[in-house]
């Protein structure tokens, strides 16, 4: 196998559609605060001058482009301002292969605030358009602003309505119906059936744009907007989406959901929305670079945390297989490390982790904030189900590896009831978890907009309570965090977290699937943070 982890195995590589060398990318000379070398100073550049770009036609990675780069440094110092209990981290990947909701064909007319329409492809940030907002028991039209605009390419579908309206959209796009938001097609990227349109679905909106929309007027459902057919067009087309102040907009007379762009990739001159999910930067020299940095005289063998920015066991790891070499390098240097993941691919490396634990301190944690399947499907649909993550924890503990659970995020008013906390801690204890650390939802910029939009759509009754609890802060109040920590501590003692018998853990054991790359669900959100070692704490780490 070559150093990129591809080798010649057809199991991982079926066909390469694109293979190109980018001689000089904008990343040349780029550096980030807090991403310097071991001495904490920023390096001249994050990456070497050349990068190889590959796109693979495999079911698990269709539409995803990997940028194979040579990083200048792999052990990164955490910024002093970060509220985390570690100083050093390793992130072999940038970006994460989550599935996002996109988009509409470029010619789709969007209703502007002046009553005219403009194709979505021609919209720009700052444009005034119409959206809706829920007030009481009904939605009302309001003026809003385009905050972000981007393009992607996706398989296209035609949705035809009884009034003759035709909408060209991706299967992932959502429209508002009388029964809530519905995707165009039913099977999502995580191979689960999601709420979707069907012939007879009643879409909501003003209908033909001849019908006047006035700010403050209530949205009615009497337009002839029933779906008559949904058909795949059999080809990928350029698609566009926007972020708005209300979380929606009016596309060809129908209320259309929008997506929230993320800024993670903008410093790489990549799109803040689609690129984060489909343009994965892979530091292919991570292993050799790590061996070099661990051997450097200035390195003092401090603890290194992984999974602190992007999950190191995301789907891309199934293809590139960087973690085995990273674990071996840390083992040979007897360097302590920890891993936090929402993936189950970590089970592939159980033997390597066991060998590392023989010579150094190894901390393992899986992230499970709640065990409610429906809530998990709604909020974290791109990750393995909670029971699968706890099963991974059980298997690691059965092998003698101390694996704990980062119980986060605990979501106020949704997963923080005494009953919900009890159920979650009880199942964590059954997994044989070595410890449990509760973390309350953290609403940082980007995640805040996404979550509050989701709340507006799914639980509008909680919008007010969230505004009161969080205000403009990213963190929940300290007394609320302490209350959750105290409850979890009591429950952990009640159910004996850390004292589960091997047989108890064995009940949750899963057999690893052989086809890891295509068989795994996407990884966790890029904002995970490694928890403190043992006891619950008021320190709050980023999870969403």
Describe this structure in words.
The protein has 544 residues and is α/β, with parallel strands linked by helices. It folds into 2 domains: 16-99 and 266-519, Alpha-Beta Horseshoe (pyruvate-formate lyase- activating enzyme), CATH 3.80.30.30; 104-257, Hedgehog/Intein (Hint) domain (Endonuclease - Pi-scei, Chain A, domain 1, Beta Complex), CATH 2.170.16.10. The chain has 13 helices and 23 strands. The strands form 6 sheets. Strands 4-5-19-20-21-22-23 form a 7-stranded mixed beta sheet. The protein is globular and about 70 Å long.
Short structural summary:
By secondary structure, the chain is of the alpha/beta class. The chain is 22% helix and 26% strand. It has a seven-stranded mixed β-sheet with strand order 4-5-19-20-21-22-23. Strands 1-2-3-18-6 form a five-stranded mixed β-sheet.
Question: Residue-averaged pLDDT, rounded?
Answer: 76
Structural class: alpha/beta
Q: And the CATH topology of the largest domain?
A: pyruvate-formate lyase- activating enzyme
Name of the CATH first level of the largest domain? Alpha Beta
Contiguous low-pLDDT stretches (5 residues minimum) are 1-46, 261-269, 501-544
| Number of domains as seen in the coordinates | 2
The profile of the biggest β sheet is: 7 strands, mixed
């Amino acid at each position: 196998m070559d150093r990129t982890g591809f080798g010649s195995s057809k199991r991982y590589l079926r066909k390469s559609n694109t293979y190109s060398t980018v001689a000089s990318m904008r990343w040349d000379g780029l550096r980030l605060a807090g991403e310097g070398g071991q001495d904490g100073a920023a390096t001249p550049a994050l990456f070497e001058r050349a990068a190889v770009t590959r796109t693979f036609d495999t079911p698990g990675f269709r539409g995803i482009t990997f940028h194979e780069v040579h990083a200048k440094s792999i052990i990164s110092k955490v910024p002093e301002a970060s509220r985390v209990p570690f100083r050093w981290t390793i992130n072999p990947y940038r970006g994460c292969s989550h599935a996002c909701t996109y988009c509409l064909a470029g010619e789709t007319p969007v209703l502007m605030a002046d009553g005219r329409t403009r194709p979505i492809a021609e919209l720009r940030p700052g444009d005034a358009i119409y959206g809706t907002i829920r007030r009481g028991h009904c939605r009302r039209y309001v003026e809003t602003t385009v905050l972000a605009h981007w393009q992607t390419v996706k398989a296209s579908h035609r949705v035809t309505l009884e009034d003759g309206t035709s909408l060209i959209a991706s299967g992932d796009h959502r429209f508002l119906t009388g029964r809530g938001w519905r995707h165009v097609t039913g099977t999502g990227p995580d191979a689960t059936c999601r709420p979707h349109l069907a012939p007879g679905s009643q879409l909501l909106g003003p209908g033909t744009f001849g019908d006047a929309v006035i700010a403050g007027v209530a949205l009615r459902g009497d337009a002839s907007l029933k779906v008559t057919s949904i058909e795949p067009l059999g080809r990928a087309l350029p698609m566009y989406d926007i972020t708005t102040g209300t979380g929606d907009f009016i596309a060809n007379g129908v209320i259309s959901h929008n997506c929230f762009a993320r800024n993670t990739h903008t410093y790489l001159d990549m799109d803040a929305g689609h690129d984060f999910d489909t343009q994965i930067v892979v530091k292919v020299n991570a292993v050799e670079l790590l061996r070099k940095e661990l051997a450097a005289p200035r390195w003092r063998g401090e603890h290194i945390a992984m999974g602190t920015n992007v999950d190191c066991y995301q789907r891309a790891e199934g293809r590139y297989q960087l973690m085995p070499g990273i674990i071996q390098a840390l083992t040979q240097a007897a360097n302590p490390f920890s891993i936090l993941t929402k993936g189950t691919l970590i089970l592939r490396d159980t033997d390597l982790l066991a060998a590392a634990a023989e010579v150094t301190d190894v901390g393992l944690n899986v992230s499970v904030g709640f065990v409610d399947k429906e809530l998990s499907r709604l909020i974290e649909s791109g990750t393995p189900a909670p029971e699968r993550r706890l099963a991974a924890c059980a298997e690691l503990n059965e092998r003698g590896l101390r694996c704990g659970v980062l119980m986060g995020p605990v979501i106020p008013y949704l997963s923080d009831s005494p009953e919900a906390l009890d159920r979650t801690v009880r199942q964590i204890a059954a997994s044989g978890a070595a410890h449990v650390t509760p973390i309350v939802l953290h609403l940082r910029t980007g995640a805040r907009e996404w979550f509050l939009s989701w709340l507006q759509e799914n639980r509008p009754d909680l919008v007010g309570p969230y505004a009161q609890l969080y205000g403009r802060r990213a963190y929940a109040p300290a007394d609320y965090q302490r209350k959750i920590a105290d409850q979890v501590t009591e429950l952990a003692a009640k159910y004996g977290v850390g004292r589960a018998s091997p047989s108890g853990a064995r009940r949750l054991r899963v057999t690893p699937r052989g086809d890891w790359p295509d068989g795994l669900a996407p990884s966790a959100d890029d904002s995970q943070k490694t928890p403190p070692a043992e006891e619950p704490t008021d320190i709050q780490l980023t999870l969403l």
